[in-house]
Amino acid sequence: MEHRRTAARATDRVTEIAPGIYRVADTCNVYVIRAESKRSALAIDFGSGLALDHLAEMGVDRITDVLMTHHHRDQGQGLPRAVAAGIRIHVPPAEQDLFADVEAMWQSRTLYNDYNLRQDRFSLLESVPVHDVVPEYRRRAYAGTTVEVVPTPGHTTGSVSYLVERDGRRLAFTGDLVFAPGKVWSLAATQWTYVDNEGPAMTVLSCYQLMDRDLDVLLPSHGDPMTDPRHALGLLAERMQQYVDSRRPTSWDLRGLLDNPFIPLTEHLLFNRSSNAYGTVLLSGTGAALLIDYGYDMYTGLPPGGDRASRRPWLASLPALRRNHGVTAVEVALPTHYHDDHVAGMNLLRDVEGTKIWAPDIIADVLEAPMVEDLPCTWYDPVPVDRRLPIGQSFQWHEYEITVHHLPGHTLYAAAYELVVDGVRVLITGDQQLGTGVPDGPREVLNYQYRNRFRLGDYQASAALYRRLAPGLMVSGHWPARWVTDDYLDLLITEGAEQVRLHRELLPLDEFDSGADGVMARIAPYYSRTQSGTIARFLVTVSNPLRSAQTAVVRPVVPVGWRAVPDVTTITLPPLGRREIALEVSVGAPRRRARIAVDVQIGELHLGQHAEAVLDVVDTAPVGPAGPARSVAVDAAAQAPPGTAPTGEGAAP
User: Fold this and answer.
1) Residue 565, exposed/middle/buried by CB under 10 A (0-12, 13-18, 19+)?
2) CA distance 534 to 459
3) Bridge partners for 151 per DSSP
4) Residue 631 has what pLDDT?
5) Which member of 70, 148, 183, 574 has the lowest number of beta carbons within 10 Å of its beta carbon?
């Protein structure tokens, strides 16, 4: 853990390091930037709040805003003083929860058998109110000073640096990215997982990107100003690259990855080798680009944990897209499915590049309301969709006609995109199946997860779709693109049939056709937030696993003192059919993650408390992604019997 103090370089706690810019020696270097025409100021980081005791000697009446470079406690343990003084707090987007709701981390963080080495436990002890998140890759004025926000992960996943121009010089406030030329304040902070090198590799990439910013001075959170930024950052990148390579079986050309992240599949179709999942780029002769999937760009590994601060999107590959491939606008982004590694960067693309998000109907609902259903791998925020694309229809983007096909299997909410580019018929399939892409290599593996709403027959349907479309090239999300042969298509047909055989041998589907996932009741929204004393509304879906009509009895189970209406419901379910029940719950006092369940009996089959939902109850009206229950039907897909895929578009006849 970080515990050292920068050695004093002056007898005074306050040093003017540039006109109107002061360094306050606190638990970290706190930089106070006075407005050029006023006596107000902003602070970059806050330490213990010592700056508030030295305003007069800096010619400042009040600090109005504090911008945090990262969440560590030495940077912000005094933020309660800022709150008391009415100072607005602005934080890095990826780390916002470690300021505004740090209790969630403290209450859920693994203590026993802990392989998560991220220093999130060096966060604040108590939450502080956050005014907003800082706008990465953009400029904004704070206390009369224009500040540009640059993502610089390395010391932490969500770290940012702030660029300010003063008297013709460009100053970079770099947090703990760099301590001195070629040195970091902490190597331990960069070690996020037990054996990998995500943080050190990110440090290398961040250094190279800052070197392109034509900086005059680096101002670190610990250490002294550096007046030769290219040397300081270049030396750190060189040394840290050596460190990364020393901990790997083979060297890793991070500079090459940053300079050339895109591999041409054809002249106008690129493959982003730097991202997880791999993204595909379609180039138009107009200079515009269309991205298919955009999750974790310039990926160096997946930090442990599932909290927001463990998942950091950025736009590190876009300069190379412009420089090397003549792209003038990133116009559109399409998701193959809703998983975070395919969509995490889309909101940032929209905000920074003006990119429009187009999504198939089958995916759009999940993007816009990610917590309505109990699905894995959803992004933390809604991803608004600018244009909905009907399944089975084509749309035009510049010179290309692209057809959207439903592609259930890996997840029910997935699509494949069919297009012809440079004379090649291409099918982009997301994560449907995995393999090496090498003829005669290891067998293909069907990539299905039950909680993704996998259904028996989905892979037979996708194999039939591939045979019908006969693509020359198939592009997937995590594995090399594959030039398609008849033998490969035959293999997928065989594997789809084998998958169904195995499931029918292992599950009692002839007796109880509860589907591959065994779920016979669901509550939506699965997660929501509401205010104490209000009515929370849910939609309960009950599915009949039997081939005869059945009477179902559904009884809500709610916390003591709460009330559900109706308190019992009796319905008739058609053979292998389903029905929906509206449920209203009168909510009690504030609490985190209150559980609501339904006890279900279908005929003689008593399932018990088969389905649950989770509800956060707060004192004031909540804001955020959770919303009212939407219909969870998915056209014909959700109306099919529970264990089967429907016939129709993208399905086997």
Assistant:
1) exposed
2) 44
3) 160
4) 44
5) 574
* Number of neighbouring beta carbons within 10 Å of residue 507: 17
Q: What is the 8-class DSSP label of residue 478? A: S
CA end-to-end span of the chain: 60
Contact 144, 59 (CB under 8 A): no
What's the rounded Cα separation, in Å, for the pair 178 and 176? 5
Cα–Cα distance measured from residue 287 to residue 249, given in angstroms and rounded to the nearest whole number? 40
CA distance 287 to 299: 26
Tokens read off for 568: 């019992």
CA distance 488 to 317: 32
Of 273, 332, 323, which Cα lies nearest the Cα of 298? Answer: 273
Please name which of 205, 513, 530, 487 lies closest in space to residue 371, comparing C-alpha atoms.
530
DSSP conformation letters of 528-577: EEEETTSEEEEEEEEE--SSS-EEEEEEEE--TT-EEESS-EEEEEPTT-
CB 292 within 8 A of CB 103: no
**Positive or negative, the Cα torsion across 214, 219, 221, 223?**
positive
- Residue of 395, 276, 402 whose CA lies nearest to 343: 276
- Tell me: pLDDT of 120 over 60: yes
Say if CB 573 and CB 605 are below 8 A apart: no
Q: Give residue 433's pLDDT.
A: 87
What Cα–Cα distance (Å) separates residue 572 from each residue in 552, 565, 583, 603? 6, 19, 17, 10
**Beta carbons within 8 Å of 151's beta carbon, 6+ residues apart:** 136, 137, 159, 160, 206, 312, 314, 316
Please say whether the dihedral angle defined by the alpha carbons of residues 432, 435, 439 and 440, taken in this order, is positive or negative. Answer: negative
Helix axes 458-469, 486-506, angle to 10 degrees: 170
- Is the overall model pTM greater than 0.90, yes or no? yes
CB 132 within 8 A of CB 106: no
Angle at 204 between CA 271 and CA 154, to 5 degrees: 100
DSSP H helical segments within 183-334, as ranges? 198-211, 229-246, 254-259, 318-325
Write the pLDDT tens digit of every residue in 190-211: 999 998 889 999 999 999 999 9
Distances (CA, A) of 420 to 77, 266, 425, 473, 581: 56, 11, 4, 10, 45
Concatenated DSSP letters of 597-610: EEEEEETTEEEEEE
For position 625, what pLDDT does the model report? 47
